[in-house]
């Protein structure tokens, strides 16, 4: 599917329920109904390209398939779709 800009990935995840914490890299943690979950990934600072290989690893970190990860970044998967997926698959419990 090709590379993506790191800031595009971060912005897409932020729109889908992730919140950021600035460390040496940007840590993005998924929140559901205001509660922090154990789902997170890390994105480098700056305007860098994220390789296909790294996107596969990021997808695995946030418990999604590569296709689902690309759907989040490219926007076919909505915030509500992601929430529903995590709850139905019992990845996140309320």
List keywords for this structure.
94 residues; alpha+beta; Metal Transport, Frataxin, Chain A; 3-stranded antiparallel β-sheet; two-stranded antiparallel ribbon; 5 strands; 41% helix; globular
User: In angstroms, what separates the terminal alpha carbons?
Assistant: 33 Å
**What is the number of independent domains?**
1
Give helix % range: 40-55%
- Secondary-structure element order, as H and E? EHEEEEHHH
Strand content: 25-35%
CATH architecture: 2-Layer Sandwich
Choose one word for the global shape: globular
Count of helices? 4
Q: Provide the spatial order of strands within the biggest beta sheet.
A: 2-3-4
Rg over alpha carbons: 12 Å
Number of strands: 5
The level 1 CATH classification is Alpha Beta
Q: Describe the sheet with the most strands.
A: 3 strands, antiparallel
Given helix and strand content, the structural type is alpha+beta
Provide a quick synopsis of the model:
The protein is α+β, with helices and mostly antiparallel strands and 94 residues long. The chain is built from four helices and five strands.
